[in-house]
C-alpha cells in the first residue's frame, strides 16, 4: 500500500462487518466503529468482501485493534425475510406501535387549522397515514435501507402554531345551521391556512434534501452537541403542555383515567406477559400500553354516554367525552378515499414560514441520524456509512416535501419507538417494515376506518398527549447525561437557553405589536421565529456552546459520539470491508462501473471527503 493511499484512508469512515450463521443461529458481528458523520466517507467494496455462502462452516472473524466482536441473538437480520405470516404479524405490530404518534398529529392540528367538519378531519387523517406509508417504503428501500419507520413528528407543531398564529383566529362556524355558502367559505378558510403550512414544509425540506445529497449534514453536526439538542427537544415537551391541557380539561376524570392506565401498563405491568401456545409468551403491555389504554378509556366513555352521564349540551363541561358526537361523520364518510397532491390547493410560500419550519427540520435531522445508528446496532448490522446517512437524510427530506404536497400539515421523521421494538422482537428484517408501510397506505385509503379514529373522545386524546409530550421533553433532556453538569459553563448555557426559549416566545405571543421594525415582511419573519420555542432555545444553546470556551469532554461531545456512533480510531493497514445491507437495489453494477459516482455523497460507491477530524483534537475547541 502506497503512502499516499494510506494517507487518504485517514480521512475515511469505514465499516467492516462479517456475518456467519452456525447451527444455533448465533450471529458473529465484526464492526468498524470509526463512523464519524463529520468525515462523510467509506471504502468502496472489493471482490473479497462478499459474505460466506449460506450453510458454510462458521469461522469467528479476525478482529483488528480498532474492531470489536459481539454476539447478537437477532433472529432475522436486515436482508433476511421471515415467513410471510410472521412478516405480516410483525408489520401489524409496528403499525400499532406508531399508531398513537401518527393519529395524534391531525387531531391536535384540527383546531388550530380551523378544520370545520368531521369529513375534512377524516381526509386529513387518511392523508397522514398514506404519506407515512409511502415515505417508510422509500426510506427502507432506497434511503438508509435499515428497518426505519417514518411518520409525523411533534417537532413540527411549534413552528406550525406560530405560522397559524400570524394568520389570526378561526372564523365562527356553526356546522348544524350553516348554509352551503358558509360551508364553502369555512372550507376555503381552513384550506388557506393549510396551504401556508404546506409551503413552509416544502421549502424548509429542500434544505434537508440539499444537506443530504451534498453530504453537508456532517458539516452541520460539527456545531451541534448535547447542549444544543437538550433545550431544542426538551422545549417541545415543555411548551406543548397547553395542548394536552386543552384536551384533558374537557373532562378531567377521563383524561386522568387514560393517563393512569398508560402509567400502569407501561411502568407497573411492563414485565407481565401473556402466555401463548408452545410455552411462549407475549409482552403485550410493553408493546401496546397506549393502544390498550385508549381502547379501555374509549369503552368507559361509551358506557357513560349510553347511561347519559355526560351532558348533551355542546357548551357543557364533559360533552366532549361523549362517543356519539361524530357518529354522523362515520355514516357520511366514504369507504375509500384517495389522498393526492394538491388536494387542498396550491401551497403558498412565505419567507417567515420557511425560516420557522427550518428549525424543526434541522432538529428532526439530528434526531434521525442518532436513530440510524441505534437501528443498525439493534438490527445486528454494521453502523451506517456516510453514504447511507446522507441518503437517509436525503430521502427524509423528499418525504417531507411529499407530505407538504399531499397536505398532512406536518413533516416526517424516524420513529424511535419502532426501533426499540426491534430490540424486543429480535427481528431486524427490512421486509417487516415494508409490510408495515403497505399497511399504513391501505389504512390511509380506508375512509370508514379513518372516520372511526376521528371519533376518539377529546379527553382520551388529552391523556395520551400528557404522557407523550412528557416523554418527548424527557428524551431531549436525557442528552445532558453526556455533559459535565458540575461545570458552571454548561449550567449557564442550559439555564439561559431554557429561559430565553420560554420567555421570549411568551412575550411575543402575548404582546400586541411586540415586533415592529416598520417592515411588514421582516415583522412576520421575526414573529414566526421568535414565537417558536425550539428555535429560540436551540439557537441560543448552539451559539453559546460554540463561542464559550470548553473542552470536548466538558461539552459532552466525546461521550455523546461514543454512545451514538461507537467511534474509535481507524487502523490504516486493516482490511477494509463494509456491509452490503446499505447497497442500493438493482443498480449497484452500474454504480461500480461509473467512476464519477464515487463523488456522489448518496451513492454506495462514495469515497468521502477529506475533512479534518476536529472533534478528536481538543485544540480546535
Q: Could you explain the architecture of this structure?
A:
The protein has 621 residues and is mostly helical. It is 56% helix and 3% strand. It is built from 24 helices and six strands. It has helices at residues 3-9, 84-113, 118-142, 157-167, 180-214, 217-221, 226-239, 241-248, 252-268, 284-287, 289-306, 327-332, 351-378, 386-406, 416-425, 430-445, 447-453, 458-477, 488-510, 520-530, 533-547, 552-555, 557-565, 588-593; strands spanning 27-32, 67-72, 150-151, 274-275, 281-282, 413-414. The strands form three sheets. Strands 1-2 form a two-stranded antiparallel ribbon. Helix 7 (226-239) runs antiparallel to helix 18 and helix 9 (252-268) packs antiparallel against helix 11. The protein is globular. It starts with a helix and ends in a 28-residue tail after the last helix. Mean pLDDT is 81; it is low at 1-71, 566-577 and 611-621.
Tags for this model:
621 residues, mainly alpha, two-stranded antiparallel ribbon, 24 helices, 6 strands, 56% helix, disordered N terminus, disordered C terminus
Report the major sheet: 2 strands, antiparallel
The overall pLDDT, averaged over residues, is 81
Which runs of at least 5 residues are low in confidence (pLDDT < 50)? 1-71, 566-577, 611-621
Order of strands side by side in the largest beta sheet? 1-2
Structural class: mainly alpha
Relative helix content: 55-70%
- Which word captures the global form? globular
N-to-C series of helices and strands: HEEHHEHHHHHHEEHHHHHEHHHHHHHHHH
Helical segment count: 24
Amino acid at each position: 500500500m502506497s503512502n499516499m493511499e494510506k494517507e487518504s484512508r485517514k480521512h475515511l469512515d469505514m465499516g467492516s462487518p462479517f456475518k456467519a450463521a452456525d447451527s444455533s443461529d448465533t450471529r458473529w458481528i465484526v464492526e468498524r466503529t470509526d463512523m464519524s458523520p463529520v468525515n462523510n466517507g467509506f471504502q468502496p467494496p472489493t471482490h473479497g468482501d462478499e459474505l460466506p455462502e449460506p450453510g458454510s462452516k462458521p469461522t469467528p472473524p479476525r478482529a483488528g485493534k480498532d474492531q470489536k466482536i459481539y454476539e447478537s441473538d437477532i433472529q432475522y437480520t436486515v436482508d433476511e425475510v421471515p415467513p410471510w405470516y410472521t412478516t405480516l404479524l410483525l408489520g401489524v405490530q409496528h403499525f400499532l406501535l406508531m399508531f398513537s404518534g401518527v393519529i395524534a398529529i391531525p387531531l391536535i392540528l384540527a383546531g388550530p387549522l380551523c378544520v370545520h367538519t368531521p369529513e375534512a378531519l377524516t381526509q386529513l387523517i387518511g392523508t397522514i397515514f398514506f404519506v407515512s406509508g409511502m415515505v417508510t417504503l422509500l426510506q427502507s428501500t432506497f434511503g438508509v435501507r435499515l428497518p426505519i419507520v417514518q411518520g409525523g413528528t411533534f417537532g413540527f407543531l411549534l413552528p406550525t402554531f406560530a405560522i397559524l398564529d400570524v394568520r389570526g383566529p378561526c372564523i365562527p362556524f356553526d356546522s348544524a345551521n350553516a348554509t352551503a355558502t358558509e360551508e364553502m367559505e369555512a372550507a376555503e378558510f381552513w384550506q388557506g391556512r393549510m396551504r401556508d403550512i404546506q409551503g413552509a414544509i416544502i421549502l424548509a425540506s429542500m434544505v434537508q434534501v440539499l444537506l443530504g445529497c451534498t453530504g453537508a449534514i456532517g458539516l452541520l453536526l460539527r456545531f451541534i452537541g448535547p447542549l444544543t439538542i437538550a433545550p431544542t427537544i426538551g422545549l417541545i415537551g415543555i411548551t406543548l403542555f397547553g395542548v394536552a391541557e386543552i384536551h384533558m380539561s374537557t373532562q378531567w376524570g377521563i383524561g386522568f383515567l387514560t393517563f393512569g392506565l398508560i402509567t400502569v401498563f407501561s411502568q407497573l405491568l411492563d414485565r407481565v406477559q401473556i402466555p401463548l401456545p408452545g410455552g411462549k409468551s407475549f409482552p403485550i403491555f410493553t408493546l401496546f400500553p397506549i393502544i390498550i389504554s385508549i381502547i379501555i378509556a374509549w369503552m368507559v366513555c361509551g358506557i357513560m354516554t349510553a347511561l347519559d352521564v355526560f351532558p348533551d349540551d355542546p357548551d357543557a363541561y364533559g360533552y366532549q367525552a361523549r362517543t356519539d358526537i361524530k357518529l354522523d361523520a362515520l355514516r357520511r364518510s366514504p369507504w375509500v378515499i384517495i389522498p393526492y397532491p394538491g388536494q387542498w390547493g396550491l401551497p403558498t410560500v412565505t419567507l417567515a414560514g420557511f425560516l420557522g419550519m427550518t428549525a424543526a427540520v434541522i432538529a428532526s435531522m439530528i434526531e434521525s441520524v442518532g436513530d440510524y445508528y441505534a437501528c443498525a446496532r439493534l438490527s445486528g448490522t454494521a453502523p451506517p456509512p456516510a453514504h447511507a446517512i446522507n441518503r437517509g437524510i436525503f430521502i427524509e427530506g423528499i418525504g417531507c416535501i411529499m407530505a407538504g404536497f399531499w397536505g398532512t400539515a406536518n413533516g416526517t421523521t424516524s420513529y424511535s419507538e419502532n426501533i426499540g421494538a426491534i430490540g424486543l422482537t429480535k427481528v431486524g428484517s427490512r421486509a417487516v417494515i415494508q409490510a408495515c408501510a403497505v399497511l399504513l397506505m391501505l389504512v390511509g385509503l380506508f375512509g370508514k376506518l379513518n372516520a372511526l379514529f376521528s371519533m376518539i373522545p377529546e379527553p382520551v386524546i388529552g391523556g395520551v398527549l400528557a404522557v407523550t409530550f412528557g416523554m418527548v421533553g424527557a428524551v431531549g433532556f436525557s442528552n445532558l447525561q453526556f455533559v459535565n453538569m458540575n461545570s458552571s459553563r454548561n449550567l449557564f448555557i442550559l439555564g439561559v437557553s431554557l429561559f430565553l426559549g420560554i420567555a421570549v416566545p411568551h412575550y411575543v405571543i402575548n404582546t400586541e405589536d411586540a415586533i415592529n421594525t416598520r417592515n411588514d415582511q421582516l415583522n412576520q419573519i421575526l414573529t414566526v421565529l421568535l414565537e417558536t420555542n425550539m428555535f429560540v432555545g436551540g439557537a441560543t444553546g448552539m451559539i453559546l456552546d460554540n463561542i464559550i470556551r470548553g473542552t470536548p469532554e466538558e461539552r459532552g461531545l466525546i461521550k455523546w459520539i461514543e454512545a451514538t456512533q461507537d467511534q474509535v480510531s481507524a487502523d490504516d493497514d486493516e482490511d477494509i470491508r463494509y456491509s452490503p445491507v446499505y447497497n442500493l437495489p438493482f443498480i449497484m453494477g452500474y454504480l461500480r462501473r461509473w467512476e464519477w459516482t464515487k463523488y456522489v455523497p448518496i451513492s454506495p460507491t462514495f469515497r468521502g471527503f477529506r475533512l479534518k477530524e476536529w472533534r478528536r483534537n481538543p485544540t480546535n475547541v
